[in-house]
Design goal:
It is a single chain. The chain is of the alpha/beta class. A seven-stranded mixed beta sheet has the order 3-2-1-4-5-7-6, sandwiched between helices. It folds into two domains: about 35 residues; about 200 residues, 3-Layer(aba) Sandwich (Rossmann fold). Helix 5 links the parallel strand 1 and strand 2.
Length: about 260
């Protein structure tokens, strides 16, 4: 516990002496200069990201993407639907802090019915936001449709975020294109999964062509493990094995034998 007397002595020190005392305290507590500057850069990056107007409905769920990627330490992440880049920026920041991994951001960046707030070409805005946060090494931009990207896709995927065409046919097509490449313990995330439930269905801008809830609910009823968080229009995590991945070696072996 720091006494009032010590706080008073610190307050009366000249600014250079305060800085020397702060550095000595950091060294004593075991943080070290490297860890101190790393944490400072991380805090500054998040502050800068929070100051960008992404005009996105993703809201605070961007932090969920960030936390998942920090915890999973994935090698390959894919997102379908980038718009102005909020999800890409938060995933990219997590990859940079992990020191490994790449995000492949798939979006034709042309006018669609599913751009947030208004229909605009978002490519220049996306690139500007990625550049502003220094994430060019972590984020590869694939300016094409998901179908075009899937034609030559060969990388195993650790984390897949589907947030593109929100019609039932569109979201189902994105799932079918990329689910064969997702690893058994990989995670697929969907945004906008609660539009048919209150309070989202009661809002003035509720849409009748929103197909994400229907498709994700079908996955759940077919036996894919799904966890939905009631925030930001619904954020759902899905595991890619019906019934879930076996957690015991004998069951995993039997499951592999039963594969077609």
């Amino acid at each position: 516990m720091i006494s009032r007397r010590r706080i008073g002595r610190f307050a009366r020190k000249p600014l250079p002496d305060k800085w020397m005392a702060l550095k000595a305290t950091i060294k004593e507590t075991g943080l070290g200069r490297y860890r101190f500057h790393t944490r400072l850069r991380r805090a500054l990056a998040h502050t800068k990201a929070e100051g960008i107007n992404f005009a996105s409905g993703l809201g605070n769920s961007a932090n969920l993407l960030y936390g998942l990627v920090r915890a999973m330490r994935p090698e390959t992440c894919v997102e379908i639907g980038s718009a102005r880049g909020k999800s890409a920026c938060y995933v990219g920041m997590a990859l940079r802090e992990n020191g490994c991994g790449k995000l492949y951001a798939i979006d034709p960046h042309r006018q669609t019915d599913w751009n947030d707030r208004d229909s605009v070409e978002t490519f220049a805005v996306f690139c500007r936001n990625i550049s502003a946060l220094g994430l060019s090494e972590q984020v590869a931009v694939l300016r094409m449709t998901s179908e075009e990207a899937a034609r030559d896709w060969h990388r195993p995927i650790d984390f897949l975020f589907i947030d593109g065409d929100h019609t039932y046919e569109g979201v189902r097509h994105d799932w079918e294109l990329f689910i064969p490449h997702v690893k058994p313990f990989g995670i697929v995330a969907f945004h906008d999964t609660m539009w048919e439930l209150p309070p989202y269905c009661d809002r003035a801008y509720a849409r009748t062509d929103m197909g994400v809830p229907r498709f994700v609910d079908e996955l759940r009823r077919r036996g894919y493990p799904a966890l939905t968080i009631d925030k930001d229009f619904g954020f759902t995590l899905v595991q890619t094995i019906v019934g879930g991945c076996p957690l015991r070696s004998d069951l995993a072996t039997a499951a592999r034998r039963d594969l077609p």
